[in-house]
Amino acid sequence: MHITSTSLRGVAAVAALLAGLLFAGIQFVHPVDEVASVTTPMWAVTGWLTFAMACLGLIGVTGLYLRQVPQTGVLGLSGFALLALFYVLTCAFTFAETLFLPLVADSAPAFTADFLGIVNGEGTGGTLGTLEAIGPLSGVLFMGGGLLLGVALFRARVLARWAAALLALGAVVPLLTSFLPHGVGRFAALPVAVALVGLGCSLWVHRRVEVRT
């Protein structure tokens, strides 16, 4: 197999598109973040789908950034670095949440509830030490990375500008929905999901143009 930068951009385009589709779909099927859900089959399914989404998202945003490094400058690099770290953190957290949390849910329900409190807005009660920083850190990486990278891609004028603008705007939507219940607020992810699909499609179109020329 002959590997070229064009073929790798094709892989990144598909990864971004799939990451967006998974990011959107997961919001509709994710179980309620409570102890009783942790040992159910759907918890495992959505957990591994989330892990796949994060891996694909990391590949996708890497391709989106590398396609236009000169045009995006320091702003693009900053946004990419933050968003990439968000996906890495999501991979690690989801791996633990999916693989290990069901093993202790019955024997340590209090710990399980506190662990879920990192993401469901109920808090941890100060019992998890440095793990409690995961929630705020994840939010900063997601919002800061999405906003900066979205603005950089919009200014670069290479890929679909509507999708780049939606990425930037969608990244800060969670701030507006933070007062809503977690089960409702999770749908704030949809604008970013649509943006990833749009950017992935745009990168694929550019890749096909390069192949033809």
Overview of the molecule:
- The chain is mostly helical and 213 residues long.
- It has one domain (5-212).
- The chain has 9 helices and no strands.
- It has helices spanning 5-29, 41-66, 69-99, 101-104, 109-120, 134-156, 161-176, 182-185, 190-212.
- It is elongated, with a radius of gyration of 18 Å.
- The protein starts with a helix and ends with a helix.
- The model has no long low-confidence stretch (mean pLDDT 89).
- Write down the secondary-structure element order: HHHHHHHHH
The class by helix and strand makeup works out as: mainly alpha
- Give the amount of beta strand, in percent: under 5%
The shape is elongated
The total count of helices amounts to 9
Task: Report the average pLDDT across residues.
Answer: 89
Largest sheet: none
Name the poorly predicted regions.
Answer: none
Rg for CA atoms: 18 Å
Distance between the termini: 21 Å
Total count of domains: 1
How many strand elements?
Answer: 0
- Percentage of helical residues? over 70%
Features:
9 helices; 213 residues; mainly alpha; elongated
Question: How is this structure best summarized?
Answer:
The chain has helices at residues 5-29, 41-66, 69-99, 101-104, 109-120, 134-156, 161-176, 182-185, 190-212. The chain has 213 residues and is mainly alpha-helical.
